[in-house]
Amino acid sequence: FDFMLADLGVSSMQIDDPKRGFSYKVEGPLDLRLDPEHGLSAAERLRELSRDEIAGMLVENSDEPYAEQIANEITKTYRSGGKIDTTTELAAAIERSLMFLPENREKKDIVKKTCQRTFQALRIDVNSEFEALEAFLEALPRALAPGGRVAILTFHSGEDRLVKKAFARYYKEGIFAEISKDVIRPSAEECRSNGRARSTKLRWARMA
What we know:
Radius of gyration: 19 Å
Shape: elongated
């Protein structure tokens, strides 16, 4: 290909559908699968993970600072006979894990962002998103024509790190003739009109 564009964002139609279980804000089954016909749901996946595995997943997939507390609360819920089968049940467990935080104006925002990161980490795990991205990056040298260009839109730090690392490696090996020195971010105007654009980063590269 002379040009490839990879948009790693999840479809807004999927996120906004309560039946798909992507949002902690509305009641729905804790599913999070991009293809609900295959693989384990997020609820099933959580039940099979140990406390340490849950904490590790949260750190690796979303840099979650409260990973240990969340993992403790989830496993404690299961041990006491509770269940986490819906989006709101997981959100409630996350909120319980943060009860040690002082009650102030900032706490509500912390709980919100922690829920966002936890759901993101679980979605990445359930759908093997990093593995899919790594496979795409590995195939780039074979898929691009000489002088061909690739641009990749990422939406969180884990994705961006993988892209940045791969681009740097291919540039060092002489496979890429040029790579973006800095990420390109959306303008303030675009973020105002589309709040989901706020976390977007774009990196590009050109084949030798």
